[in-house]
Automatic annotation (TrEMBL):
Domain of life: Bacteria
UniProt xrefs under Pfam families: Phytase-like
Classification via InterPro entries: Phytase-like_dom
Domain Phytase-like: 51-351
Protein name: Uncharacterized protein conserved in bacteria
Length: 369
């Protein structure tokens, strides 16, 4: 058994080893115990029916079929914006096979596929109603809103959620979303409500994370039937953990996905990149209990002392476990070949020859419910 240590490791986690985070946030009911089941990857040039398979930014499990839906963040540039249906064969020996079963194009109300750069897909979840719920980051530059959108299983438009006040893009950067840093994560709570997670701060809420300080990201609670936001919480994004080693400099840290454990506890992936070093992936257990509803607060920089942010504690550090993660943007519960609950992570290869679509699997021994 390995107790989590947030330090670089000179060894690599082996299949069958356990990773345990005991009593996070001083709550032993929140203990997370996992068994590592392995990693596999697809090369950047893997294709399906002549269309590049990549940019996987969202993943969710369908218990009715035992398959997964996986969202590509292709902005209808290489092919129409789309999601896939996947079969993953996971055993105690590792991830044995990945099969792409179906490709589904996402569509406008008119039934046409999305035009080039009209959406920036990032996260996807399957609802109890059978529909798929997905996020687009929009675009500050193009004036496109970040949204939660709903489609049926064939990609047909169903409806859009309302955008919260203060999220609309602005040309002068006085408020609203940053380019390519908006609704990055999405999850259903057991009640059926949803949390949509911003990657980083809105302009009016402060700067992005740096090597010296973190920032505050807004997590929006939605009632999915009406599509209306009902609350917002401030999530404390950590400072950038690693300096860049080469030029041109690429260095940031932000939220890349969320996954509900129960009505108030979430797993939150923070994804950081440092040029010349690579990706640092840390998973936190975060809690909305006791956090201030900030939906009525226009600017967090002006009200910082008046709010209580979500609490969080590190539960998985991929590099500390001796793993070398790529650009992890997905996490979902699932089932292995014996029906045991597993936790699956996947990466977005950015359609880049220097990256790969990577899958990690862990068996869940204990977790909050």
């Amino acid at each position: 058994m390995i107790l989590l240590l947030s330090v670089p490791s000179v060894w690599a986690l082996e299949v069958g080893e356990q990773v345990v985070s005991s009593c996070p946030l001083n709550d032993c009911d929140a203990t997370l115990s996992l068994t590592y089941l392995g990693e596999t990857s697809l090369s950047w040039d893997y294709s399906v029916d002549g269309i590049p398979f990549g940019g996987i930014s969202g993943l969710d499990f369908d218990p009715a079929t035992g398959h997964y839906i996986a969202l590509s963040d292709d902005r209808s540039e290489r092919a129409p914006a789309r999601f896939y249906e996947l079969a993953l064969e996971v055993t105690d020996e590792g991830i044995e096979d990945i099969s792409v079963l179906r490709t589904v194009n996402l569509k406008y109300k008119t039934g046409k596929s999305f035009y080039r750069r009209a959406v920036d897909p990032e996260s996807i979840r399957l609802g109890a109603d059978g529909n798929v719920y997905w996020t687009t980051e929009g675009s500050r530059v193009s004036g496109l809103p970040t949204q939660v959108k709903v489609a049926d299983r064939d990609g047909n438009f169903v409806r859009d959620f309302e955008q919260p006040d203060g999220f609309a893009p602005t040309s002068d950067r006085s408020s609203g979303i940053r380019e390519n840093m908006a609704f990055e994560g999405l999850t259903f709570l057991p009640s059926g409500n949803m949390i949509a997670a911003m990657e980083t701060a809105l302009y009016q809420d402060g700067g992005q994370a740096s090597l010296r300080h973190g920032t505050l990201s807004r997590f929006v609670r939605y009632e999915p039937t009406s599509g209306k936001p009902t609350a917002e919480y401030a999530y404390p994004v950590s400072a950038i953990p690693q300096r860049p080693l080469t030029s041109p400099v690429e260095n940031d840290n932000g939220v890349s996905e969320v996954l509900a454990l129960d009505e108030h506890r979430l797993l939150v992936i923070e994804r950081s990149i440092a040029s010349g070093f690579g990706f640092t992936i840390k998973v936190y257990l975060a809690d909305t209990n006791g956090a201030t509803d900030i939906s009525g607060i226009e600017s967090l920089t002006e009200s910082h002392n008046d709010i209580v942010a979500m609490r969080k504690q590190l539960v998985i550090d991929f590099r500390a476990l001796g793993l070398t993660p790529d650009n992890i943007e997905c996490v979902s519960f699932g089932r292995d070949s014996e029906g045991n609950e597993i936790l699956v992570f996947a990466s977005d290869d950015n359609f880049s020859a220097s990256q790969k679509t990577q899958f990690y699997a862990f068996r869940v021994n204990q977790r909050p419910h």
